[in-house]
Amino acid sequence: MVFVSSSRPNPNPKFLELSPSTASTKRKREKRRRKRNKNKDKNNKIPNWLEIPEDVWLLILSKLNTFHIIENVQKVCMLFRKICKQPSMFTTINMIVPDTCVKFPNNVMNAITRFAVDRSSGCLLDIYVEYYCDDHTLMYIVERSKNLKHLRLGHEIAISDEALIKAVEYLPVLEEVELIICFFEVETIETIGRICPTLKSFSLNDVGSRDYELNCNEEALAISRSMPKLRHLQLIGNPMTYLGLKAILDGCPLLESLDLRACFHLNLSEDMVKKCETIKILRKPYDSTADYGHEACSESEDQFDTYLSSLEPVSSDDGLPEHHNESLDESPPNCFSHVQLDQEFSD
Questions:
Q1: 3-state secondary structure of 110
Q2: What does the pLDDT read at residue 46?
Q3: For site-directed labelling of 292, which of 5, 10, 45, 185 has its Cα 20 to 30 A away?
Q4: CATH 3.80.10.10 for the 90-326+339-346 domain, yes or no
């Protein structure tokens, strides 16, 4: 039924007047439409990144490389600069050198590392440095980071044996030492184990080679003699043989994980595999190194992985192939020269 007012005639007879109920429904429909459009505009609004809480930004930025934080991130805006000054940003320092900075002067990279250590204000727990770190910088790190638990050095770093030993002595709560493609004397490795009673994790990684003339058990024997409390041991690319692995299993009975990838001189016999059953995580010589961020073997070695993974276990009486039965008394030639420790740290 259409309601028509008698007091005021319809000025346009072609269109009938709406009843009050119909007009109310139309208003409600229009209100809902405006509300939908408003919510749609709100969802399409470009977010204001500065409204993100500082603790969230701190978590995000702390995942970045320390070099990029110092050279780039802190220069973005005042908020980022404020966050990058907080010591909690530098509890972990990861000085991976970008490819574009490989030719940076040594003094510049050492200065950046020392700058990051200063920003940590003594809160540093974990540090990784590679290539550019000399004896002075290493001592600078440990003297200002008494709570350091993880010391990781990589890629032919120019640190002497004497400096490394002296640095480890400064760290009473050190739990992990990681040496990646670094060249230190066997005596240095054994000394580290003896002066670090809290050491739980040790890594001594190299580039693996299948040249049996290069096999050597000296490093494995040094670890077995000096690190009986180890829980985690990584020996990627190590040249040890069956005898070296046997010594480690006998000397480190608490091992929970053992990484033997790219240890091409090892061909695990059945009795050795059974002896490793107590180890929770065992990475075998021909397991994939896809999750390893460093060079494990040369490109010329990679093409033989499929063939060598199908080799049968050794069948000799002592579990060793014939070329492994060599005397361990002969020390390998010392083919690496080390930087001499400055007089400042030799006292």
A1: helix
A2: 64
A3: 185
A4: yes
